[in-house]
TrEMBL record:
This is Aldose 1-epimerase. Its EC number is 5.1.3.3. It catalyses: alpha-D-glucose = beta-D-glucose. NCBIfam families: PRK11055.1. The keyword Isomerase applies. Coiled coil: none annotated.
Amino acid sequence: MKLTKKLFGFINEQPVTLFTIKNNKGFEVSCMDYGCIITEILAPDRFGKIENTVLGFGSLEEYEGNSYFLGAVVGRFAGRIKRGSFNLEGNVYQVKTNENNNHLHGGHKGFSHVLWDSKVIKCEHKTAVEFSYFSPDGEEGYPGNLKMKVVYTIYNGSNDLVITYSGISDKKTLINVTNHTYFNLSGNLERDILDHELTIDSQQFIELNEELLPTGNLVPVDHSVFDFRQGRKISDGVESNHPQNILVGNGYDHPFLLNKSETHAIVLVDHESGRKLVLETTEPSVVLYTGNNLEGSYSTEGVELQNYLGVCLETQSPPDSIHHQHFQSSIVREGEVFKSKTKYSFGLI
């Protein structure tokens, strides 16, 4: 295993470090202590050509203004909270509203736009970077002094990235975190992700309203472009006239409830390159976002950001769960340890 560190820039005169871990198969992951952002994941195609499979920026300044959350850990709460307001044990809390009148991905800074402490953990067959962050009581409006840890682990002999999350608060609070990496398995952004084939072991998705908030309705996927159980191209949803696809900008931005009976809940494939990504998670759902609104003034790897250039697979509890009792809860009690784990395995078809 090879690990390198380099200075990526400064935030408020504090250095930002970029870590790169490379295993004996050439698989390589780069991440930094600003937002726990993953900047690159290099993986081989069917011919052994090793290329980048995620979207990332070339400078810290671009990440500071990163409204797309490229590669970042988002929290305390991933997804939206209606009006940024919730009630815990009779206490009403108002968290920051940063998307219209709603709360999104932790607020103005959340976990994605702050500097984390970091340390490297080396073992014989694996290397990890452990990030830790103390979120004080009242930050972004959330209750509780929260100690968070995020660990990225790479292994020799397998092209796997394992992300583990843990947190503990001194007050009852909400915790729902995820990684917001945009994947593109074509390699170095050779193509968009419309022809990527996705399989999700899910029988239901959560319906959204015009503010992209959950309505609370759990919709069966049967006989629709939301049925990924046998695999389908992402383009199916982009070209669909289903009202839910049109609502989110022609594509997907929906939570899918995962079937816990299956080990490999999510599989993404690019048939042209031969690359395959398999996700296994402890989380009850995944938010599928197909980059419907990526088009803008940013560029990545010399390619201007465009819609459908990457796909997010955000393993998490359902958004706005505090307002829907039949969703899995994201309430964490005082002194209770929050834990979550997602494994990303890069292989070939």
